[in-house]
Amino acid sequence: MKRTLLILLCFTVLGIGCGSKKFSGTYVTDAAAIEGMGEPGSSLMQEHIFREDGTFETKSIETPAQGERREKSASGTYTLKGNDLTMVTTIEDGKPAPDSSRVPVPFQLSDDMKTLSLPGLPWVKYLKK
Predict the structure, then answer these.
(1) How far apart are CA 85 and CA 107, in angstroms?
(2) Alpha-carbon distance 65 to 6, whole Å?
(3) How far apart are CA 1 and CA 80, in angstroms?
(4) In this predicted model, what pLDDT tens digit does every residue of 29-87 receive, in sequence order?
(5) Long-range contacts of 39-47 (CB under 8 A, 24+ apart)
(6) Residue 110, Cβ neighbours under 10 Å: how many?
(7) Burial of 57: CB neighbours in 10 Å, binned 0-12, 13-18, 19+
(8) How large a percentage of the chain has pLDDT more than 70?
(9) Backbone angles phi, psi at 56, to 5 degrees
(10) Which pairs from 86-91 meet CB under 8 Å and 24+ separation?
(11) Most distant pair of Cα atoms in the chain: their distance
(12) Distance (Å, rounded) from C-alpha 110 to C-alpha 84?
């Protein structure tokens, strides 16, 4: 009897652990969604790399119509609850992020995990690479 209960308990604990979603991947700016949003001739490309350990890295390249190309980087942590993904930046361009950047930013992950979007702003969309 004790052995049966012990085996049942082990399967229950393992089952709970197996139910959690592992999340990782690279998401890039949906260029078609933001086309025409900025100054004519300008472009913006962002790449978000999510790791299973709950960290992320973002690379951003902005090319204004006139002026020099600007590259930025950021990293931090994220949490995923259901389809709600929240990112918090802790490092910007290799330095500790200012308090104004350390705010939770909510994103919505599609059911198929192929699209990441900012709620309320349909033109801010990232596609899984």
Answers:
(1) 5
(2) 67
(3) 39
(4) 887 766 666 666 667 788 999 999 999 999 998 887 787 889 999 999 999 999 999 99
(5) 39/64, 39/65, 40/65, 41/65, 41/66, 46/126, 47/129
(6) 13
(7) middle
(8) 74
(9) -140, 160
(10) 87/48, 87/56, 89/58
(11) 77
(12) 9
Phi and psi at 119, nearest 5°, equal -55, 135
Residue with tokens 């900025």: 38
Q: What angle do CA 108, 103, 99 make, to 5 degrees?
A: 160
Per-position DSSP letters for the chain, written without gaps between them: -HHHHHHHHHHHHHHHHHTSPP--EEEEE-HHHHTTSSSTT-EEEEEEEE-TTSEEEEEEEEE-SSS--EEEEEEEEEEEETTEEEEEEEEETTEEPPGGG-S-EEEEE-TTS-EEEETTEEEEEEEE-
